[in-house]
Amino acid sequence: MSPLLRIQFIGLVSLWAFFSSASISAEPSQVLEKIKKTKTLTVSVNEFYDPFYIENPNPNFPGLDVELAQEYAKFLDVDLKIIPLRTFDQHARMLEKGDTQIAMAGISSSINRFRDVYFTDPYLISTPAALVNRTALPPEPEGQIVTVQLFRNLNDLTNITGISYSVLANSSNHQFLRDAFPKAQIFSYFTNEAALNELKKNNVNAFVADSFYIQALLQKDSSLRENYLPILGVVQEDHISMATAKRDVEFLYNLNFFIKELKRTGKIQGLINKYFKSNQWVKKE
């Protein structure tokens, strides 16, 4: 055997030995073992983010994330326990302590959050979106048939002067606004509800949130379209993912396979249609 062939042969044998030893020494998922032992999957959800989680819901409309959790519990053949929480830090602490196994809370992944948790592949793709006061936008040209929507995404507002924005403080949407509109007036608030109220009180011209939040608002109150233009086109991809503790890659692999199957079979799209293209989940007052 020539020296070159000998080197290639040794390299292939070493590579085979590495992967063989890795697969042999791989331990079963501790998280999955705990779920099977207790016969319970514990999932945290966002307490204030309908329709991902809906408190006291209409029958058969518990929320998109709750339905995903139900599907995964069924996949594992275990019971499901849902824990509503308020902040990302709370979700991360519960995962780290092992009190929950998954956070399904409409969470968008980011580099900063990756310091605290692992993220699955995205099950939804969102984008910064807005409701804009129609009086702040230039009128359509008179006497012309408009065939193209003038304002498809937030970037289309770049050349419109005088627009002020309200947004949830320290969110990815807040960061997007600061980067995309460095000279604009941007007011941040502790909750999306407070930011939306500033738009309704005419203290700002536009309320910015993720596209699913805006779509949910329109399902809850279709009259918003009378005074505010929804701008929902994609300006950047925000990946809505499940979060797990940073210690069990095999569990993460299991979840990713589950998500791919839900996408392949159309289950995810069905849930999008159920909660964002229909208002049957909206509770009657």
The CATH class designation of the largest domain is Alpha Beta
The DSSP helix count reads: 11
CATH superfamily of the largest domain: Periplasmic binding protein-like II
Average pLDDT works out at 90
Q: Assembly state here?
A: single chain
What can you see in these coordinates?
The chain is an alpha/beta fold and 285 residues long. The chain folds into 2 domains: 30-125 and 239-277, D-Maltodextrin-Binding Protein, domain 2 (3-Layer(aba) Sandwich), CATH 3.40.190.10; 128-231, D-Maltodextrin-Binding Protein, domain 2, CATH 3.40.190. The chain has helices at 3-25, 30-38, 64-76, 88-97, 111-114, 172-180, 192-200, 211-220, 224-227, 249-264, 267-276; strands spanning 40-46, 79-85, 102-108, 118-119, 124-126, 128-133, 164-168, 185-189, 206-210, 228-231, 238-244. Strands 1, 2, 3, 4, 5 and 11 form a 6-stranded mixed sheet that branches. It is elongated.
Q: What attributes characterize this protein structure?
A:
285 residues, alpha/beta, D-Maltodextrin-Binding Protein, domain 2, six-stranded mixed sheet, five-stranded mixed sheet, Polar amino acid transport system substrate-binding protein, ligand-gated monoatomic ion channel activity, signal, Iontro_rcpt_C, Solute-binding_3/MltF_N
